Fold this protein.
Amino acid sequence: MQHLVFHYFCSMSKKGISVIAVEYLNTALFVRGLRDLKQQGLITLSLNNPAFCAENLRNGIAQVGLVPVAAIPELKPDSVFSKYCIGAKGPVHTVRLLSNKPLKELKTILLDSHSRTSARLVELLAKKYWGIEVSFKHAEAGFEKGEHSDDTGILVIGDKVFAIEDQFSYSLDLADEWTKWTGMPFVFAVWVSMIPIDDIWIEHFNQALSMGLKYKDEIASEFSLRPGFEGVDVQKYLTTHISYSFEEDKKKGMKMFLDFITDKEYDIPYK
């Protein structure tokens, strides 16, 4: 059986199957599992931020990838697959609206360009839940390190949140705000394929991700020593804040979000 599995993956890799994933702490467990497949020569693997993952799939540079949920309608993938995702059932910690004035006093929100999902989520919350009128502006890379007027909020995602969140007077966790509003978990990113893939490929891809999730202690120890993670409880973040299983409640929450941003009943192409 193992010989057949190896032969199958080799034949898939010869067809040019390439995988792209996000290079953040919350995806490090997935990447750990996929690197085992890469080392065996069974897949190719590249890493980037969420927006570039979607762009590489759109341009045909990669065929399978972990992409922001908000990119799905435009990407029109062949399928959304896998038992795993990047989601949260409450506070996610690393998707935050930071400011020095209360929400109702903000005039502008700067959007982190690394994730379309988080940008669409803050726009949706502002309009439908918070009931505020603000202007949204896409920010340049490194914007979170600059100076901003007190009536400007900044949407920051990913590992850089850990280093700067204490510099602001107000901090809103967007996943937590979504759950307070809808009662549903939130899904930030899912695995999609731009080409047809069969159940055998998906099964072994899921096995690789599952193996990666067993390395929480190792990944937590590794990241705790990195600059920018001083004082961060990495183990708690990976265990409590990130929810990896793509369960039915997350699928319902994702569909609700996609229905909102597409303004229609969106049909998700599950495999």
Remarks:
- The chain has two domains: 2-87+186-262, 95-182.
- The domain at 95-182 is CATH 3.40.190.10 (D-Maltodextrin-Binding Protein; domain 2).
